[in-house]
Design the sequence.
């Protein structure tokens, strides 16, 4: 794909985000400089956490939370919006537990650490939200129910939280943390801070299934989202999901090469999330069997960003069908 075309596509995605910005659906209330002040005054160096929690630090450092502000794709989007602070709010926010009712707001300094330890753990009095109260620990961990609930993640992951509540998650005993922060065997009581998602191939693969069925001169391909508890793909603006089929003769000549888009980028104002596969639901594509094909290769393709070519896509699942 040429650089020009690529830039054009990036722009379309940015405009998509812009549509949301103007529609105000994705954004917290306006923040002002005075709103930035009190929480920032509480900010201690997040580097302190590293000294005593090296293993957690290492996981977090590898995660996309640590680069939620510095990531090149995110920065490119921010530049497009003139570094609008509403836009940047969730990507480098003040500690969200300081005020459970207020929208997540941008912090004034050290934004480069993105969604860091203090953002998720610091309480209004400077102590640390934790599963257990540990009176002897220097960082003052205090048992805090909010930390272990889905809404803690949902303060920023507003769309995924909303569709998970409409999906199967509301009535299940799982929450965001149970899937995205599983127990870590090497640390008793430890929870993974890797928060794996769309950038991790194995996690994507685990969230979706591909099944094929032949009926006469038709092939039905079913892509299902049985277990995530929220829409697949989770992120609704950039991710792209395609089904590709190639039928060949015994001499390897192609008789059919088709692609069906399940989810494209969603650039329009007032869009719905119908292109994502909802929790517990599936997408079915129908293709003809074109004689004299003897085999069909079916692939489920996933792209993080729409400007990536099909060749750069992750092949999530692949099936070879013999056509008798
Ligand atoms: C001087 C060492 C030290 C520093 C610095 C420190 N901690 Fe701790 N922290 C501990 C100890 C000791 C414990 C209790 C044992 C444990 O859980 O590892 C603890 C426990 C915790 C717990 C878990 C309590 C539980 O079991 O649920 C959290 C959460 C936590 N710290 C967060 C932080 C954060 C965030 C920072 C940085 C702002 C930080 N700590 C800085 C020593 C430290
Ligand atoms: C309400 C919080 C919030 C606001 C406001 C917000 N974002 Fe995000 N952004 C997120 C979250 C959370 C993700 C991770 C994916 C998800 O949960 O949908 C994300 C993901 C992204 C990504 C994709 C990153 C990747 O690696 O795939 C880009 C780019 C991005 N945001 C840019 C923007 C821009 C530009 C704006 C302003 C129009 C904006 N964000 C406003 C929370 C927010
Ligand atoms: C302060 C806002 C904020 C909070 C709170 C938050 N996140 Fe995120 N999260 C983000 C942003 C922003 C991104 C996108 C980072 C990027 O791709 O650059 C993200 C990305 C992710 C990803 C995607 C990683 C990938 O591979 O694409 C997962 C999974 C995730 N968060 C899970 C969680 C869970 C679970 C919680 C609750 C324990 C949580 N987040 C709390 C802002 C937040
Ligand atoms: C996206 C939010 C988020 C970020 C960022 C985050 N944590 Fe946590 N952390 C949690 C949640 C949620 C739990 C509790 C999970 C549970 O027990 O259900 C937790 C648990 C912990 C624990 C106790 C369990 C364990 O694994 O030892 C420690 C210690 C801790 N965090 C330290 C840190 C440190 C240090 C950082 C920065 C490197 C950090 N956290 C960043 C959300 C976060
Ligand atoms: C039953 C397990 C499960 C639960 C519960 C769950 N997720 Fe996921 N999540 C997944 C799987 C699997 C994926 C990878 C497939 C995908 O991208 O949708 C994923 C993907 C994600 C992504 C990355 C999306 C992207 O396109 O990069 C984010 C962000 C996320 N989840 C946040 C959350 C939040 C927030 C909650 C709670 C409201 C939650 N998840 C609950 C399994 C789960």
Sequence:
């Amino acid at each position: 794909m040429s650089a020009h075309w690529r830039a054009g596509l990036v722009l379309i995605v940015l405009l998509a985000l812009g549509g949301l910005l103007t529609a105000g659906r994705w954004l917290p209330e306006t923040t002002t400089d005075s709103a930035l002040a009190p929480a920032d005054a509480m900010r201690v160096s997040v580097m302190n956490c590293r000294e005593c929690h090296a293993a957690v630090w290492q996981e977090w450092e590898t995660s996309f939370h640590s680069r939620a502000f510095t990531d090149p794709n995110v920065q490119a989007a921010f530049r497009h919006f003139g570094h609008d602070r509403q836009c940047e709010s969730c990507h480098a926010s003040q500690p969200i537990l300081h005020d459970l009712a207020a929208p997540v707001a941008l912090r004034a300094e050290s934004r480069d650490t993105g969604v860091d330890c203090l953002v998720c753990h610091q309480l209004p009095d400077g102590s640390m939200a934790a599963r257990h109260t540990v009176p002897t620990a220097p960082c003052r961990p205090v048992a805090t129910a909010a930390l272990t609930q889905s809404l803690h993640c949902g303060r920023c992951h507003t769309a995924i939280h909303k569709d998970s509540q409409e999906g199967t998650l509301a009535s299940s005993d799982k929450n965001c943390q149970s899937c995205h922060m599983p127990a870590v065997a090497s640390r008793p009581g430890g929870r993974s801070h890797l928060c794996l998602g769309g950038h991790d191939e194995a996690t994507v693969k685990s969230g979706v299934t591909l099944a094929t069925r032949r009926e006469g001169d038709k092939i039905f391909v079913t892509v299902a989202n049985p277990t995530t508890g929220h829409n697949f793909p989770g992120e609704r603006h950039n991710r792209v999901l395609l089904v590709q089929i190639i039928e060949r003769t015994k001499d390897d000549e192609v008789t059919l090469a088709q692609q069906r888009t399940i989810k494209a980028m969603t650039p329009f104002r007032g869009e719905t999330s119908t292109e994502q596969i909802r929790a517990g639901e599936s997408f079915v594509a129908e293709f003809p069997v074109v004689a004299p094909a003897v085999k069909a290769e079916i692939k489920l393709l996933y792209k993080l960003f729409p400007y990536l070519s099909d060749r750069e896509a992750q092949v999530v699942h692949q099936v070879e069908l013999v056509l008798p």
